Amino acid sequence: MKKYIKSNLFYFSICIVLFSTAGLMSVFLANILKRMIDTSTAKNITQFYHVMILTIFFIIINFTLHILRGFFKAKFLKKVMLSLKHDLFKGIFSKSIKDFNRENTSVYTSIFNNDLKILEKNYFDNLLTIISDLSQFFICLVAVISFQFELAVIIILINVIAIFVPVLLGKILSHKQIDSINKFSDLNVKIKDFFNSFEIIKCFQVTHKVIDNFDHADNIYEESMENFRYCEGIIAGFSTLSSLGVSVMTTLISLYFVIKNQITIGEMMAITQLVNNIANPLGRLSSELPLLKSTKPIELKLKEYMDIKMVQTGIKINGLNQITMDHISFGYTENKEIIHDFSYEFLKNKKYAIVGNSGCGKSTIVKLLLNYYDNYKGNIFINDVNLNEIDMSSVYSHLSMVHQNAPILNDTLRNNITYYNDYSIEQVNQIVHEAGLDHFVESLPDGLDTVINENGNNISGGEKQRISIARTLLKNADLLIYDEPTSNLDHVTAKEVEKNLLNRNNTCIMITHRLEDNLLERFDEILVLDHGTIVESGTFKVLLDRKGVFYSLYKG
Ligand SMILES: Nc1ncnc2c1ncn2[C@@H]1O[C@H](COP(=O)(O)OP(=O)(O)OP(=O)(O)O)[C@@H](O)[C@H]1O
Predict the structure, then answer these.
(1) So where are the chain's domains?
(2) How far is CA 275 from CA 128, 236, 261, 510, in A?
């Protein structure tokens, strides 16, 4: 976190100066109190006017300092949180697809919703309070020493004992903190899943079970929070002991010095005031310091993400001429192989269909091509270069894909289609037409500028699919991969859209369950997959004539 302080040193330095004045202001106030009491015992009206002016001056300065502290603290926190979130977001997006998929997306959202908030409050904000309290403690201590050396020594002794235990407890607090963060992340995953499945939960009438499930996860989280709060409570107890002990001892000892005529009543008041400003900050410090320490695990966790660099090593490819899958075997888990000895060569500008029963591994083949997983046996080559040696970003720049469940942004239809790239209005309109979206766009109140809701819940499944198709076509990549692109479209629209998809001069791999003549006749090669292996391949006509697996699938 020091890096973020360094990069915002200007605002941090101003904050240090402003928050450090807290001690001086306490001494100022103690001085005013001393003068007030001494004036009352001397009954001197000139002294009274001096004290009055001094008090007004104190109030104005104190007020101004508070305003300035608030202003610069807000600036500092804004700057530091902006750069922190930027680096974190960039770090997460620097992950490869396979690394990103290893964690549930709720884990990432929980970092932003929870971890960063804790860091802001317990580290950066807390740090400024610590500076203020340290300044009060040291400056007031020096002031007390200048009044009464023996008194200062006694105060230090009491405080050292009182602060020692909470600092030790800080380590335990830190463990409790990280435990509660992990539990919160688990709870977040559940909440996200349940909200995403809202309609299904209602239809299946399992609301009570879901509530039980939620309660269970929440219970685990709250128990971890309860442990954390217990620990905080114990630390707070020691803090109170510290400040109370010091206050009582000081008053008694000061009284003794007054009785012995070694200090005036005004000085006794000033000392009591100063000691309060030693004991109270010290009491607070004994919980603030452990809190600061407790953010260490969060810092380490975030650092892991922020240290991820966009890996752009490897060989760059300038186009996709041929893709060779050579004896590929793969399973998501060790004991279940999904793809068995799959070998095939996809050639430039040819059209391929992959068909087969549900679960036979069609999408998995595509995921392996896209390097989502690298723990397969065999080799994948692109233009004769092994996929493991290629800079994947150069591969991604030459391909585009329509996913089975197309992700939709909570943004305008235009941005959902262009994905923030710059295209002319003519290009966008042409693609809208090819994806069969003309009527849909016309029906929208703001046309392409209409905002689509989160997950596209104000549009139909077919419209979502056509947006995804438009997005893919607009990129006009060398290789277009379609995973059941028209499964949600009516027969007529599907036919029209598929015609546009296959008319293009690109390599195309389409996974489809639509075994219809007018579609299948358009492919150069149809791969028939069964249990992760190609059992037949050829043109539609050849496969029909063979009267084998494909024929049975086709005839249903
Ligand atoms: N991330 C995953 N982790 C574990 N198993 C998975 C994962 N993804 C898919 N599978 C399993 O791998 C097998 C093949 O899945 P795949 O999605 O490739 O099938 P598919 O032929 O595309 O099916 P469909 O036609 O239904 O889309 C299935 O049994 C599926 O349950």
Answers:
(1) 2-306, 322-555
(2) 21, 19, 20, 78
- Please indicate whether residue 332, judged by its CB atom, sits closer than 6 Å to ligand 1: yes
Distance (angstroms) between ligand 1 centre and the Cα of 408 equals 22
Residues 6+ apart with CB under 8 A from 465: 402, 406, 485, 486, 487, 488, 489
- Close Cβ partners of 438 (under 8 Å, ≥ 6 residues apart): 432
Using one digit for the tens of pLDDT, what is the confidence trace for 495-515?
Answer: 888 888 888 888 999 999 888
Predicted complex ipTM = 0.97
Fold topology of 2-306: ABC transporter transmembrane region fold (1.20.1560)
**Does ligand 1 lie within 6 Å of residue 532's CB atom?**
no
Domain 322-555 fold: Rossmann fold (3.40.50)
Smallest CA separation from ligand 1 atom 7, residue: 332
Which residue is closest in CA terms to ligand 1's atom 28? 359
pLDDT for 19-39, tens place per residue? 999 999 999 999 999 899 889
What's the pTM value of the predicted model, to 2 decimals? 0.74
Q: At what angle do helices 296-306 and 265-294 cross, to 10 degrees?
A: 40
